[in-house]
Design a protein that fits this description.
With 68 residues, this protein is of the alpha+beta class. The protein has one domain. Helix content is 18%, strand content 34%. Strands 1-2-3-4-5 form a five-stranded antiparallel sheet, covered by helices on one side. Strand 4 and strand 5 form a beta hairpin. This is DUF4761 family protein. It holds the Pfam family DUF4761. It comes from Serratia marcescens.
């Protein structure tokens, strides 16, 4: 069963997906890349460089697969 999960935007820089908070960080001045950091219950779970990547990382953690 492929169940869809909602991405909820709380503010301009904050999203909630499957119980994890995804925060959009300011662009890096040298690389001009935006990062998204993953947090849940005060625990930091890393950062990704696209919102879709961050959501995929959350899915992998919940499904018991190690994020690559």
């Amino acid at each position: 069963m492929n169940r869809q999960h909602a991405l909820i935007q709380l503010s301009k820089h904050t999203f909630v997906y499957r119980g994890f908070t995804i925060q959009k960080c300011p662009r890096h001045s040298e690389t001009n890349r935006t990062a998204y950091q993953l947090v849940s219950n005060g625990d930091y779970f890393g950062r990704d460089f696209a919102l879709a990547e961050a959501m995929r990382t959350v899915d992998k953690m919940i499904n018991g697969k190690r994020p690559a």
